[in-house]
């Protein structure tokens, strides 16, 4: 989920970098970006977190190849949630595009 079309580099800044003065209980997790592998989890995310109903409400899809970093399944609320650690030399914007829902 992203706030604008097209995606921008700002969409791929992890919390650790967005809020550098914050004390992170798990700084490794804070450096990851959230991605989902199943569209069915998006409505659940939107119901659970208001920001995904209002400000960050566009679905961006992409294909991540092995050179694009490391991912691990972290299904705390949504089963398809993954943490993605993007290497600094990987530009994420060409990998993702916004998909508009029909309706």
Structure described in brief:
The chain is α+β, with helices and mostly antiparallel strands.
Structural account:
It is built from three helices and five strands; from the N terminus they run H-H-E-H-E-E-E-E. The longest helix is centred in the middle third of the chain and has 8 residues. The relative contact order is 0.27. Strand 3 and strand 4 form a beta hairpin. The radius of gyration is 14 Å and the shape is globular. The chain has one domain. Strands 1-4-3 form a three-stranded antiparallel beta sheet, with no helix packed on it. Strands 2-5 form a two-stranded antiparallel sheet. With 103 residues, it is of the alpha+beta class. The model has no long low-confidence stretch (mean pLDDT 91).
Summarize the SSE layout with pairings.
Blueprint: H1 15-18, H2 27-30, E1 33-36, H3 41-48, E2 59-62, E3 70-73, E4 81-85, E5 96-99
Number of domains: 1
Distance between the termini: 18 Å
The major sheet is characterized as: 3 strands, antiparallel
Query: What is the SS-derived class?
Result: alpha+beta
Report the helical percentage. 10-25%
Outline, from the CA principal axes? Answer: globular
Keywords:
3-stranded antiparallel sheet, 103 residues, 3 helices, two-stranded antiparallel sheet, globular, single chain, alpha+beta
């Amino acid at each position: 989920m992203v706030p604008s079309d097209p995606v921008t580099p700002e969409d791929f800044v992890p919390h650790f970098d967005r809020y550098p003065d914050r004390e992170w209980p798990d700084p490794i997790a804070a450096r990851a970006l959230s991605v989902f592998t199943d569209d069915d989890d998006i409505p659940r995310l939107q119901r659970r977190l208001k920001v995904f109903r209002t400000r960050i409400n566009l679905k961006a899809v992409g294909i991540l190849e092995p050179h694009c970093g490391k991912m691990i399944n972290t299904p705390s609320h949504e089963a398809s949630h993954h943490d993605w650690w993007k290497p600094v030399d990987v530009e994420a914007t060409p990998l993702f595009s916004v998909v508009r829902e029909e309706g």
